Amino acid sequence: MHIVMVGPFGLRPRGTMSVRALPMAKALAVRGHAVTMLLPPWQNPEDAGRCWEKEGIHIENISLPPRLPLLFHALIALRLTRRALALHPDVVHFFKPKAYSGLTHWLLARLPRTRRPRLVVDTDDWEGPGGWNEIGGYTPAQRRFFAWQERWGLTHANAVTVASRTLESLVWAMGVPPQQVFYVPNGVARRQEAGGRRQEAGSRKQETRDVPSCTSHPASCILLYTRFFEFPVRRVIEVLHRVRETAPEVRLLVVGKGLFGEEEQLLGLAQETGLADAVEYVGWVESEALSAYFTQADLAIYPFDDTLVNRTKCAVKLLDLLAAGVPVVAEAVGQNREYIRHGETGWLVAPGDVEGFADAVVRLLENRELRERLGQAAANDVRQRFAWERLVETVERAYGVEE
């Protein structure tokens, strides 16, 4: 089967195509399918017109038209549509029902049924009211258009793949028959080395170069690996303050960069509350370098407000932590409850409960055996239940492949 995956943007800086579509494509290629990724690299125009092969996947960045108002957007959609048709695919899989992938879907759907491939839409976020429309900084016209695109795209596809159970329910509520909706959460590669063997890595903490200063405080490093928008940063400071009342040596290592500069607010609050010396901000770290920081952490915290955006998303960063064998304390919202088995592969707390969150962190910090058990179990569990090699079977069903 020849599959064309159409993205709303390139492989970077946003993550959907690199952390969701690409590993899905790799798993499909292993099963004998030919996969082409068509990308409009408007955020990284230096990739425009570039093509390359990656582990059996053909990645094609379309050339970008002149940046003329409205015409720029129309021409990108037309170029994606023409190229997709020229490849003669059996399936076109659109990642996100909005923006350029949504426009390409709309154009391909204009073709007679006998002339068009199977059209599948993937959704990994809620885009409309209560979702990214509220936090994305869009104009009123964009918000209305994206909300329309989302509803139209999800209800005019041969099949829909969803990244979370909440998205599954929302698509059902639109009237899409359940047999056309396929739950495909974000996954990991089973063949990668399980990350739970942190006991050996921990013995090498002092030998690791260019790692955070938490290394000088054994059994006291809490990791916050985040994009920040999922929670108010004040809550992180409140949790840290409460934890340090019991364990004053604890330090917070922060890896990641906010969408709207939230890291500056976090550092400002740390300064105001006298916790500046207990917080180390590393910033954005390339995926290849993350393991050094994960190794330094005794546990990770994953704060997560109970919002529609969070209920619908499928947090790749949480999955990264679990797959690496980092013990995690997370708020029990949305897909977090699917990824973590409370008390078995991690620790879940009620959203917004600062005291309960801090108590859980202290409990794990004081119990090394529990931390190691949770971390090892998490690494093994996600590689069994959420391996792309397993999830891709559901993707094939969305494509109409007979079992």
Q: What can you tell me about this protein's structure?
A:
There is one protein chain. The protein contains 16 helices and 14 strands. By secondary structure, the protein is an alpha/beta fold. The longest helix has 18 residues, at 368-385. The relative contact order is 0.12. Strands 3-4-2-1-5-6-7-8 form an eight-stranded mixed β-sheet, with helices on both faces. Helices cover 41% and strands 16% of the residues. It has two domains: 2-187 and 387-398, Glycogen Phosphorylase B (Rossmann fold); 198-385, Glycogen Phosphorylase B (Rossmann fold).
Distance between the termini: 14 Å
Q: Under CATH, the topology of the largest domain is which?
A: Rossmann fold
The largest sheet has its strands arranged as 3-4-2-1-5-6-7-8
The level 1 CATH classification of the largest domain is: Alpha Beta
